[in-house]
Amino acid sequence: MKFTYYGQSCFEIETGGKKLLFDPFITYNPLAKDIDVSSLKPDYILVSHGHGDHVADLMTVQKQSGAKVICIAEIADWLGKQEIEAHGMNIGGGFNFDFGRVKMVNAVHSSTLPDGSPGGSPAGFVVYAEGKKIYFAGDTALTYDMKLLADEKLDWAILPIGDNYTMGVDDAIKSTGFFDCKNVIGVHYDSFPVIVIDKEEALDKFTKAGIKLELPVIGASLEL
């Protein structure tokens, strides 16, 4: 299972011969200027919520790839009005796809689509594939709901660490104690001035907490 980072909260997971792209925001992110959006051909696009820094390239990538979008029901309805195929879900629900299973879990944030339409509830996802369990928290604050993931025995957690709009480093570390995961990939940082972090300090804090933190450079891949 391969993870490739495209900046902010955008990344791709390749599993079971399928490509899953999460929260496409590349064109408008100066840090991702070397990523060619036209080269992305995912089979699925998973959207955690409706903010622009998570859906800015959604239409472009979906139209060039024909990918099925997996998202909250309200975003699925919004996409349907634009003749884009989407699989709507809601918090607590799961569904079996051809690559594995996806469960939608709670995130504490807000969600409005770029045109002002309501984006429903923000969400995170747990992906079950290749015998592994990968948690993407989406944009979220630290929340006791994360304790519900403890029984999942997660292999990896993909967590926002930029602070201001989401959890910062300290709360992200605390969250790993809620669901007992020692492998973390940090996302949602450095793209805007208010979420710039000290990466060396973040790595040091995670290490001292006994947690492996990966901060891949944009365009880099790692095996999960």
Automatic annotation (TrEMBL):
A Pfam family it matches: Lactamase_B_2
Record's keyword annotation contains Hydrolase: yes
Record domain Metallo-beta-lactamase: where: 7-188
SMART domains: Lactamase_B
Keywords, ordered alphabetically: Hydrolase
GO molecular function: hydrolase activity
PANTHER family, A to Z: UPF0173 METAL-DEPENDENT HYDROLASE MJ1163, UPF0173 METAL-DEPENDENT HYDROLASE MJ1163-RELATED
Record family assignment: Belongs to the UPF0173 family.
Protein's recorded name: UPF0173 metal-dependent hydrolase IRJ16_03850
